[in-house]
Amino acid sequence: MRILVDMNLSPRWAEVLAGNGFEVVHWSAVGDPRAPDRVIMEWARDHGYLVFTHDLDFGSILAVTKASGPSVVQLRTSDPLPERIGPAVAETLRRHEVILAAGALVVIDENRLRVRILPLNRE
Questions:
Q1: Looking at the domain assignment, is residue 92 inside a domain?
Q2: Is residue 111 part of a domain?
Q3: Per-position DSSP letters for 15-58, written without gaps between them
Q4: What is the distance between the alpha carbons of residues 21 and 64, in angstroms, rounded to a whole number?
Q5: Residues 99-103: contacts with CB within 8 Å, 24+ apart?
Q6: Nearest to 44 by CA among 80, 1, 77
Q7: How far is CA 8 from CA 4, 54, 90, in A?
Q8: Distances in Å between the alpha carbon of 103 and those of 6, 9, 32, 118, 123?
C-alpha cells in the first residue's frame, strides 16, 4: 500500500508507517507545501497513493466530485501524533487494505471507525 501523508500531519508519520511495512511519502518531499488539496488529490490518484490526512476537506472533495479515488484515510482526533495512535492507524490500514485499494474514505475517530466505499453520494 502506498500512502501520501498530507502537510497537516507530521513527517514522523512517514517514518512510523514505513516502519510498519508501508510505502510512504510526506507531501513536503514530492510537492509544493502550499499546494491546494485538489492538487494533492490529483498527485495521489495519478501516482497510486492514498491520502492520509487530518484535514476534513479531502472527504468533502470526494463527496462533491463523486470521485472513485484516491482513497482517503482521515484522522479526526485532537492529538494526531504518531506516538499516540500510530499502532492503531497501522492496524486499520492493514485491516482495510482491500477496501482502500478499491477506493474508500476511512475516518479514524477518537472512539470509532467509519468506512465508506467510493464514490460517495452515489445516485
A1: yes
A2: yes
A3: HHHHHTT-EEEEHHHHS-TT--HHHHHHHHHHHT-EEEES-THH
A4: 33
A5: 100/1, 100/50, 100/71, 100/73, 101/1, 101/71, 103/68, 103/69, 103/70, 103/71
A6: 1
A7: 12, 6, 18
A8: 18, 22, 25, 5, 17
Rounded CA gap, 88 and 63, in Å? Answer: 26
Would 122 be classed as within a structural domain?
Answer: no
Instruction: Report the candidate in 60, 57, 40 with the shortest Cα–Cα distance to residue 49.
Output: 40
Domain boundaries, position 37: 2-117
Split into its structural domains, the chain has a count of 1
Q: Which three cell numbers stand for residue 34?
A: 502550499
17 within domain boundaries: yes
Amino acid letter, residue 62: L
Give CA–CA dist 98/14, Å, rounded. 21
- What pTM was estimated for this model as a whole? 0.95
What is the distance in angstroms between the CA of the first residue and the CA of the last residue of the chain?
29
**Cell numbers describing residue 4:** 501520501
pLDDT per residue as tens digits for the range 36-94: 999 999 999 999 999 999 999 999 999 999 999 999 999 999 999 999 999 999 999 99
| Contact between residue 121 and residue 66 where contact means Cβ atoms under 8 Å apart | yes
